[in-house]
Specification:
Layout: E1 2-4, E2 7-9, E3 13-24, E4 29-35, E5 58-64, E6 68-69, E7 72-73, E8 77-81, E9 86-90, E10 96-99, H1 112-125, E11 134-142
Antiparallel strand pairs: 1-2, 3-9, 3-10, 3-11, 4-5, 6-7, 8-9
């Protein structure tokens, strides 16, 4: 808990920096209509609500596209900000974060140019490579 100028705040912040590619989460997700109700009712697919349980028959879910999961895409990890739809795919060994006031040195990997080439190849496969969106990124989150 922090006290600033006479008021109490339960907020916290964290910051991060990375070397990578900025894109959008929505480029890696797709929506699917899935069955929400499991009741056995004749012609239930044509109904909006189930007459037995009252649930909506179908619902929309969002999931990662093939080749992407919560851990990353290909051999690369990523950092997501769901509020802004930002997704940062970063080079291995280049991500650092801090809560409150931690300071640490993160040494850059020796093969950074090879890693960038591999990321570019992967990003081109998904149609998202943009040289102007690759670089050193830093950000801060508040909650």
């Amino acid at each position: 808990m922090k006290i600033r100028q006479g008021f109490v705040s339960n907020s916290s912040s964290s910051s991060f920096c990375l070397i990578g590619l900025r894109t959008s989460i929505s480029r890696f997700q797709e929506e699917q209509e899935v069955r929400n109700c499991r009741c056995e009712v004749e012609n239930i697919e044509s109904m909006k609500f189930c007459p037995k349980c009252g649930k909506t028959v179908m619902t929309t879910t969002t999931d990662w596209i093939e080749g992407v999961d919560d851990d990353g895409v290909g051999s690369f990890s990523f950092e997501c900000d769901y509020e802004s739809d930002d997704l940062f795919i970063y080079l291995p060994g280049t991500y650092a974060y801090s809560y409150d006031y931690d300071v640490e040195l993160t040494e850059l990997p020796d093969n950074i140019y090879e890693q960038k080439a591999a990321l570019k190849e992967l990003a081109e496969k998904y149609g998202i490579w943009d040289e102007s969106k690759f670089g050193f990124w830093s950000g801060q989150r508040y909650s």
